[in-house]
Structure formats: C-alpha cells, structure tokens
Request: fold
Amino acid sequence: MSTWNHQILETESHHHRTLPSRLVLTFKTVLEMKLKMAKEEEKPNQSTPLIIAMKGHPGTGKTTLAHSLASTLKFPLIDKDDVRDCTLSLQQTLLHTSPATASSLLNQLSYDVVWQIASTQISLGLSVIIDSPLSRRAHLDRLLQLASSAKARLVIVECKPSDEAEWRRRLEKRGASDEPSSSWHKPCTWEELERILILSSSAAG
Reply:
C-alpha cells in the first residue's frame, strides 16, 4: 500500500466560496481527463483550458507527481520553487534592509510571478500545471480568481502523507542530498517543517 495519498479537489471556476469535493487520484483518472480534453478540442471554439494545481507541504511528493503529470499530459509546468530559486541575491540584499520581511516578500513575489505566467499561458489557450504548496487561503483565493477570470477548469491535486515517519525520512534525505543553490529556501529538517506547519495552520483561516 502506498504511503502517499494523492487526491483531486475539483471545482468549477464559479464555485469560489467553498472548497471542492475530493476524489482519489489514479492514472486512470488522468487518462480519462486527457481523453475528455482531446474530445473537447475536436469541437471548434469549445476547448476549455485546464489548470491542474498541486497542493501539499514539502516532502509529500507533489513535485514528483507534477512532473509525471506534465510529462504524461504534455502541459507546461510552472513551479513556484523555480522562481524562488532565482531570488537568492535579492534575499541577501533585503536581509540588510528588511530582515524581518525579506522571505515573506520574496515568497509572495514568487507566487505573483507564477500567477502571471499561468495567466499568459491560459490566455493563449494552453492548459497548465502549477506546482506550489498552496497552503495559505490567500493563495487559494488567488488561484480561484485566476480560474474564474480565465473561464478555465480547475483541478487541485492534494498530496498528503499517511505515514509521518516516512514523510520525515523523505524530507531529511532530500535536505541532505539537495544542492545548496536549490534548497536554501526549503525546510531541510523535521523541526523546520514543523515551524512551517504551525505558520500554515494559523494562516489557513
């Protein structure tokens, strides 16, 4: 039995006040989704862009799954960490002027870049996969707004570990093996992750 639960949270763009229902994600589901989209594309002027948004804390396997989905569905993948990785020099500069807010400012900037890139791709008629923790209500609301304004179908794939010991092992193994240039803003220990979980729970309301 897998130690990772992958769930689909699917919503129509106009249902922006409530969280959608949950379904178990299987590759059969993905293939059925792809076939349905292919049939829609055969009809002129009736193709609806799809946003697949990953959701989950670090170490839950969402990036691995996002890469697999992007490869299978041939969708552009927009990874928030790719943007955040590029802000190291800005972080170092801001630490001298605004040490208390540097990380939060650049994290929000990374999300803003992701939303803008996704908006551009969707306006071109492309479906996209967005990889981010999506742990704050403000980010979820922004995603729902994006889908609504673009009249796009939105599917949220939530990755949740059912085995905490395996989650911890996976996280700390990744922290020990990652290159510093790509992991400087990610939790590398269980204690760091626990602090993130506390902050996330307080900001989720």
